[in-house]
Write a structure and sequence with these properties.
There is one protein chain. A five-stranded parallel β-sheet has the order 2-1-3-4-5, with helices on both faces. It has one domain: SGNH hydrolase (Rossmann fold). The protein is an alpha/beta fold. The relative contact order is 0.15. The radius of gyration is 18 Å and the shape is globular. Helix 4 runs parallel beside helix 5 and helix 5 runs parallel beside helix 6. It contains nine helices and five strands, in the order αβααβαβαβαβααα.
């Protein structure tokens, strides 16, 4: 699986090492991560062959935050132009690398949930027939913004359709914004609260990347975002998103004090290699 990037591509050696890491992840497969997660005492992972085709495959659906816009840029490149990757990118690429499962990226930059998003999602489910469907929309709707009631109805319908088509739904929150997109924060906070409530009511997982960003960086000037644009993650930001999604699929609570260590153990990574910061410990 090649990587074609419009913008900054880095050295050939870096790309080779990156592809090597992806290959190793696919070689060992998700079975190692599942076995390690179960040994650690966490809940049963979601990585199951739901549709009976002999493999575990994931549909990643959303807007530019799913597609990976802004990826392959480092935190110290604040003035670099926003990248629009043509090949694999974003958190779906990280999940493939970490878990060794197929992830099809259905991210569409600029898409609005309230416009074409829901119908495109239904069409994607019909075409892909994936075991797991990770769903994230709302960042572009926050510009309008659509009402909380509309967002609730659309998200609940997406969950219902996913289940009706035989896939496991997984919701995802929207990353916090800053700088040039800080005006989106009130609507994004509203939509994230609704997504969390729907996940609880429907007893489905949610990859709370917003929570992870707030733990890991100063939201007012978050080093996980492309600055000063302040909406799309950079490479570090997509790494954190990938970790949170992988932990969610393995049913590891990455926000617990020992969550990052358990995730590293499940993935066979060195201790201290997980970038996501758990919740602050509250003193009695």
């Amino acid at each position: 699986m090649g990587i074609s990037i419009r913008g900054k591509t880095g050295s050939a050696l870096a790309v080779a090492n990156f592809l090597g890491a992806i290959f190793l992840g696919v070689l060992f497969g998700s079975s190692v991560a599942i076995a390690n997660a179960q040994e650690s005492g966490e809940g049963a992972p979601l990585l199951r062959d739901v549709n009976g085709d002999g493999s575990v495959n994931i549909l990643a659906f959303g807007d530019s935050l799913t597609r990976g816009v802004g990826d392959f840029t480092s935190p110290d490149e604040e003035d670099a132009p926003l990248t629009f990757p043509e090949g694999e990118a974003g958190y779906p690429l990280r999940v493939e690398r970490l878990l060794g499962v197929g992830v099809e990226n259905f991210g569409s930059p600029g898409e609005q949930f309230n416009d074409t998003g829901l119908q495109r999602y239904i069409d994607a489910l019909r075409r892909s027939f994936r075991d797991i469907a990770i769903f994230s929309e709302g960042a572009n709707d926050a510009r309008t913004p659509i009402s909380g009631g509309t967002f609730f109805n659309l998200t609940q319908l997406a969950v219902n359709v996913t289940r009706a088509m035989g896939s496991q739904p997984v919701l995802m929150t929207i990353v916090p914004t800053c700088c040039g997109h800080s005006f989106l924060s009130p609507s994004i906070d509203l939509y994230n609260g609704i997504s969390r409530a729907i996940a609880i009511a429907n007893e489905i997982p949610i990859a709370d990347v917003n929570r992870g960003y707030r733990n890991t960086c100063n939201v007012g000037s978050c080093y996980l975002l492309n600055l000063q644009e302040g909406l799309h993650p950079n490479s570090e930001g997509y790494d954190v998103m990938g970790e949170i999604v992988a932990a969610t699929l393995l049913q590891i609570n990455i926000f617990a004090p020992d969550g990052p260590a358990l995730l590293a153990q499940a993935l066979g990574l060195p201790p201290g290699s997980i970038k996501t910061v758990p919740d602050p410990v509250i003193s009695p």
